[in-house]
Specification:
about 475 residues, Beta-lactamase, peptidoglycan L,D-transpeptidase activity, Penicillin-binding protein 2, signal, penicillin binding, PBPA_dimer
């Protein structure tokens, strides 16, 4: 009898230990991921029972919770909502949050693992629960300048700090007012959300980090990096200066913009080809380099990698699996299946500006407890080195020449050396072009890297081009931040 009791006691004890272990794991280690799960509606409703932490720009709230006179204790409000919507996102009463509201939901509601003891303290002391505030890296001058410069265009502007990876501006247009999606009226929220979903301009898409477009000629910076780093090419390397180039194994003709040769002479240098943004010599270069070298360099810049800033960034794409020479010739000037986000192209310019090192992009400066003590603070992190400092210096000089006397001339700023590259990418035989600019300034000691995306041809179909529409936007933004 005693033996059987002992066995039962052991089984009960093991079951108790298993139960205690599982609940401890859930509460201590899985609480944050469970709270962040968009299917967890209890967390959503609980988030309205505490004062959600503010999202701050330069110390001023751009998202905050205010007392509400209804079943919900607080109403989430957004100052200058459309300007910052691509960063803040929104938190509705009948759906999943987006943007920073989703990515940092645990911190903003005070339920993250790092705030566990603060939550216990509130329970013991009877203090009113309150979430952490989030100071973000956005510079209000840069954000406003990017918003104003982009105007009514469909597209995006991203500004970064090359040495750290801080995102200083992140604008996406068309935008929306998140205040319309956070009112405590299910019918009103549903109506506003459905209108945005059905809007032909797709305002809910964050074009800065989640919209992929062919990069066109701005991708020539990646290919030039691969060429210079190979040791087989210099800026003075020459290529046959052809009016048209037949890709190997095809009858398809590749032409420069306008259908002319790349300047005069029987040959053209790599430096001239980049300065004038000529497709034919880059197609020739791509075939000589080979697909593997371009893919390796693109991946070093961040292509084919996913980033969290902490919002999820759609991975930019350079096709893997091995391309033949015909397709490689097209990727060498940013076509075929190459796709990029504006953030990715800012990372390309930022790496050149940062002497060859790609930094991890980030939009969070610091997370602050309700008593304003720091829970966590931004620390720059390297993604990796993509090129030598010498190659970066050479590329910088080539990009400066592109702005001073080349295809990116509309980015010039009096008294400042701007390094830049434009792009005009095809989307099919009849679709409007995608227009780009990416670069940095001042070229000698860069403070700002920038990328500009203009979709739908800027309203000009296939007659618009990067230097006409994207470069002036970059010029206006860079001038504003350099003069602040």
């Amino acid at each position: 009898m005693n033996r059987e009791l002992k066995r039962v006691s052991i089984v009960v004890m093991l079951m108790f230990i298993a139960l205690l272990s599982s609940t401890s794991i859930v509460q201590a280690f899985e609480a944050e991921s469970l709270n962040a799960d968009p299917r967890n509606t209890r967390t959503l409703y609980d988030s309205y029972s505490v004062e959600r932490g503010a999202i701050l720009v330069d110390g001023d709230p751009i998202a905050q919770s205010v007392p509400a006179d209804d079943n919900f204790k607080y109403l989430r409000t957004y100052a200058n909502g459309p300007l910052y919507a691509s960063v803040t996102g929104f938190i509705p009463i009948n759906g999943a949050p987006t943007g920073l509201e989703f990515a940092l939901n645990s911190e903003l509601t005070g339920t993250s693992n790092s705030q566990f003891f603060d939550k216990i303290s509130d329970i013991v002391t009877g203090a009113t629960p309150k979430g952490a505030a989030v100071e973000i890296t956005i510079d209000p001058v840069a954000q406003q300048a990017a918003w104003d410069a982009l105007g009514d265009q469909t597209g995006s502007v991203v500004v970064t700090e090359p040495a750290t990876g801080r995102i200083l501006a992140m604008v996406s247009k068309p935008s929306y007012d998140p205040n319309r999606l956070t009112v405590h009226d299910n019918a009103a929220v549903t109506e506003a959300y459905d209108a945005l979903v059905n809007d032909a301009g797709d305002p809910l898409i964050d074009r800065a980090i989640n919209s992929l477009n062919p990069p066109g000629s701005v991708f020539k910076l990646v290919v030039t990096t691969a060429a210079l780093e190979s040791g087989d090419f210099t800026p003075d390397s020459t290529f046959p200066n052809l009016q048209t180039y037949i890709a190997p194994g095809t009858t398809s003709e590749i032409e420069n913009s306008g259908g002319n040769t790349c300047g005069g002479g029987d040959t053209v240098t790599l430096a001239t080809a980049l300065r004038l943004s000529c497709n034919v010599p880059f197609a020739e270069l791509g075939v000589q380099l080979g697909d593997a070298a371009i893919l390796e360099t693109a991946k070093k810049f961040g292509f084919n990698s996913e980033f969290q800033i902490p919002m999820d960034v759609t991975a930019s794409i350079y096709p893997e699996g091995g391309l033949d020479d015909a397709f490689t010739a097209q990727t060498a000037f940013g076509q075929y299946e190459v796709q990029a986000t504006p953030l990715q192209m800012a990372m390309v310019s930022g790496a050149i500006a940062n002497k060859g090192v790609v930094m991890q992009p980030n939009v969070v400066e610091e997370i602050l407890a309700p008593n304003l003590s720091s829970i966590s603070a931004f620390e720059p992190q390297e993604f990796g080195r993509v090129m030598s400092a010498e190659t970066a210096a050479t590329l910088t000089e080539m990009m400066v020449n592109g702005v001073q006397t080349g295809a990116a001339s509309n980015a010039r700023i009096d008294g400042v050396n701007v390094a830049g590259k434009t792009g005009t990418a095809q989307n099919g035989s009849t679709d409007p072009y995608t227009l780009w600019f990416t670069g940095f300034a001042p070229a000698e000691d860069p403070d700002y890297a920038i990328s500009v995306l203009v979709e739908d041809g800027g309203g000009m179909g296939q007659t618009g081009f990067g230097n006409l529409l994207a470069a002036p936007i970059a010029q206006q933004v860079l001038e504003a931040v350099l003069n602040k």
